Amino acid sequence: MSMPQTGKKLEVDSSLKPAYVGVNMPKNDVNAAQDGHGAAIQGSFPVSLCTYVERNLSRCKDDAQRSATQSIMKEIITKATADGTLHTKNWDIEPLLALPENAKGTFMTSNAKDSSPFSFSTSRRSPSRRTKSRWEPVAEEKVTNNMEVVSKEPAKSNACTTWENTRRTGNTWNLGNFVQSRQAPPSQWNQRPSKKQRIGGNTNLTKNGNASSDSDKEQDLTKYYASSIALTNSPEEKKRREHRSKRFERSQGASSKSMSSIPHKNGAANVYTRGAISMLNNRSNGDGASLAVEDIDWDALTIKGTCQEIEKRYLRLTSAPDPATVRPEDVLEKALHMVETSEKNYLYKCDQLKSIRQDLTVQRIQNELTVKVYETHARFALQAGDLSEYNQCQSQLTRLYGEGIAGCHLEFSAYNLLCVMLHSNNKRDLLSSMASLSKEARLDETVKHALAVHSAVSSGNYVMFFKLYKKAPGLNSCLMDLYVERMRFEAIKCMSKSYRPTVPVRYVTRVLGFTRVDVLCEANVADGLEECEEWLKAHGAVLTVDENSGELQIDTKVSSASLYMPEPDNAVSHGDASLAVDDFLARAS
Amino acid sequence: TPTPSAASGTPTPPSRRLLGSAFLQEFRNWETPWAMEAMHMVALEIRLLAEKADRELVMSGKNPDKLQAAGSFLMKVFGALAVKGPKRVGALYVTCQLFKIYFRLGTVNLCRSVIRSIETARNFDFEDFPVKDKVTYMYYTGRLEVFNENFLVADQKLTYALMHCNPQSESNLRKILKFLIPVKLSIGVLPRRTLLEKYNLLEYADIVTSLRRGDLRLLKQALDRHEDQLLKCGVYLVLEKLELQVYRRLVKKIHIIQREKEPSKAHQIKLEVLVKTLQWLGITMDVDEVECIMACLIYKNLIKGYFAHKSKVLVLSKQDPFPKLNGKPV
I want to staple A257 with a disulfide (CB 3.0 to 4.6 A). Which of A48, A194, A332, B7 is the partner? Predict the structure, then answer.
């Protein structure tokens, strides 16, 4: 945390140039100038200065320019105060600042010595961190992470050195310099200047040996943050941002510096980054108090969608989303309804639902609509046999139910139970799922059915299993589907060992669930018989015909040696059947 | 050990951990393990304190992460001890502390890495460790085997723990028995009632009785009554599987009765007799199901014989139709 060595120049490569560094004004100076958009300036300034400021700001077309202008003006004002020209200068005729063309710029810090530097909020994971679902956009995650970008690194600052050097070079304000430096590559937000701010303040920031790794991590995080907020310059969005940033003006103690320096390479990101940063900066009223993660107004920083399209394909996000493509909640409700009533196949529905999920996540909407969406998707997935999508939805649902949001939690706890017992060999998970069932849950029909299935599987009772299979409530049968093959094979092995001399195929057809419906409809039975016979043959059973009745039988003694489990016929060359689109289409339509 | 009572539990663990870290740093440097006891004390206190802190965190609605942090710290301690030289005898103690943490947190899969280090690394000779640590270690690893349903191994480990456990320490014995009994039941060994009474493990009493009598209804009732408890300590699934053994006992009883009435036909048991017996026990199962259970019993070698589907008769082998489980799990 030592002061930067004098004479060390700021490297002018793109990753280091400070684009914006928050300004700490000495108390006796203007602090209101930090507020955005020409808010009232405190009494010590001449009216002409106020109007000068306002004129400059009103020329700004967007947030970036505005914040650029603001900072420059702060400098000017500081300078003027230091010079003593604050009141003497005729601000009315002072030339207006040249607007930066593409909202790029470097800003210098003023390091007024008596300003109290900020202290960073403790680096804790944001409480709103959630388990990442596979398609969750990078933006969301990183935004969350970066809000507590806490630089605990020691302050070293090259930028400040440069600035100081510049200051030393001349008393006169060199606007030209400024304009030029402002043209520097966009958002070369450098962390270092911010670090310098903290010299006066926190002394116990470094932990042994952790400092540098923290700072590296933070640089990466902030890089991500900046790049992911590469956004939207749609006019509505800007207006919204403006409005939101005004909200901060009244609130207390932001860690103004935590966002002030972000190294960034991507030009476009600058705009939004600045917007966000100016918002955060605006929260500080100079006392440097840090802002806890919980106090940061996430809502204001969350995107509010504007898109009105009901139908929207799913596209994995690679950067922060454009609100113009994100649908607001009411549109999403309509979209969900559309999907529910749609006649199209599973692939279409899955796609639409993923897109709805994405829009919900990006806007951090976590309510009953979210639950409904996940439930709907989970049900479709189950019916289509898409276990991976189902699992994603199930984990989200478990989390949402856990937060108290209403939904069909009993139904889904039954599905969860079935999934754990049939698809994983993890007894611990099963135990804990069973243990966590509430009294209410144990009385629910779907749950009771799931527990009965467990009992049947545990004792190998295939008759019971297929009985339950036939009268499964909800979508339990879909989950059981995935175990049916295994159960049948176990049953056949069992029967081959224990029955002598034979067992009729008709019987096997009945108890192993080959007849779809328990009706004595001859056609159904015949279908079932055929299917069963095929299945038996495919698994190596040896069939004979009974001399007296002409009925087909399994010769159990012989079969017991020849049974085998065939290769699954949906095996694909790359091993992942669920990736076989044709197979999917066949199943889904 | 006086646990530091914290007026507000939460601030202490971090400071404790700092103390622990500092101590660990120094400990690494010392040649001889003279400070082993102190190290153990630190480990123990960290765990207890973390547990307490987590309780308080949960009560105040926050996320209880202290125990997890304690776990990572103890892993570091373990690392310091898993070196050549006299320090390694202390490693098992720390391992056991880690087990306690992981079991409490439910993250038992993390135990695997520690176990691997202890059991396969050349640094450790199991016999070198102090007995009390070995007992604890066997107890926990035995429990893990119960979860994985490796009953034979579980039996070995838990029996070892039982044998070497301090006979004065009743509560420890009880803990071991709590898991050993279900394992033994699975391999066909029944405890005496006096044992259950002595160690206050009467939740198993009815289960044992049902096994002796072949009383399926009693088994189901017993499982129901103690469901929560049994689920919680993780033996529920094991006990559920005893169902087949109960059926077997029932069939055997029928066989015995038939043998008395009509010895020549005793080895044939009609399906309808079985169905009626079960009905009498209050269990309604249709013919198909009973047939299925019989098939399962044969399949799993609990009964020797076969089932004649056409005549619906269970035909028992004339010799030894009910083979002893002989230590082999079902």
Answer: A194
Structural domain span for residue A316: 297-413
- Rounded to 5°, the CA angle B318-B321-B327 comes to 145
Q: Is the bond preceding A501 in cis, omega lying within 30 degrees of 0? A: yes
Helix, strand, coil percent content, chain A, rounded in steps of 5: 50, 5, 45
pLDDT digits (tens, 9 = 90+) for A213-233: 444 444 444 444 444 444 444
User: The domain containing residue B250 runs over which residues?
Assistant: 244-316
pLDDT score, position A53:
76
The reply to whether A549 and A463 lie within a common domain is yes
Does B324 fall in a domain? no
Distance CA B84, CA B78 (A): 13
CA distance A378 to chain B (A): 27
Does B266 lie in the same domain as B200? no
Same domain for B201 and B89, yes or no, is: yes
- With CB atoms and an 8 Å threshold, state whether A499 touches B306: yes
- Which of B219, B240, B261 represents a domain boundary (last residue)? B240
B98 and B40 share one domain: yes
Contact (CB, 8 A) for B294 and B305:
no
Tokens of A225: 């943050």
Residues forming a β-bridge with B317: none
Q: Which of A431, A469, A492, A508 to mutate to test the interface with B (most CBs of B within 10 A)?
A: A431
A419 shares contact with chain B (CB less than 8 Å): no
Mark whether B235 and B261 lie in a shared domain.
no
Residue A48 vs residue A379, higher pLDDT: A379
Q: Which of A534, A411, A518 is CA-nearest to residue A468? A: A518
Half-sphere exposure of A131 toward its Cβ, with a 13 Å CA cutoff?
Answer: 10
The 3 state secondary structure assigned to B296-319 is HHHHCCCCCEEEECCCCEEEECCC
Q: What is the pLDDT of residues A553-580, one digit of tens each?
A: 888 888 888 888 877 665 555 555 555 5
Chain A residues closer than 8 Å to B106 by CB? 428, 432
Q: Pick the last residue of a domain from B240, B256, B291.
A: B240
The number of angstroms, rounded, from the C-alpha of B60 to the middle of its chain's C-alpha atoms is 33
Q: What tokens does B220 get?
A: 């189901």
Asked if residue B87 and residue B221 are part of one domain, the reply reads yes
Tell me if A159 sits within 8 A of A192, measured CB to CB. yes
ipTM of the complex: 0.82
Burial zone of A241 (CB within 10 Å; 0-12 exposed, 13-18 middle, 19+ buried): buried
Residue A513 in any domain: the answer is yes
* Within-domain flag for B10: no
Structure tokens at A121: 């909020």
Sign of the torsion formed by the C-alpha atoms of A305, A308, A311 and A312: negative
Nearest CA in chain A to B243: A459
Terminal C-alpha separation, chain B:
46
